[in-house]
Amino acid sequence: MYVCENVYDYQMIHLQDRQKLEGVLSPSHLEDMEFAQSLGRTE
Known about the structure:
mainly alpha, 2 helices
């Protein structure tokens, strides 16, 4: 059962990583990043 548990753990970690990446690539996140960069340039 050790292998099955590792496969499940790996799948859960991979799913969490994908969800994080999808959040980073969302349109609202990209807009927030552009806004933050524009603030950094004005200072």
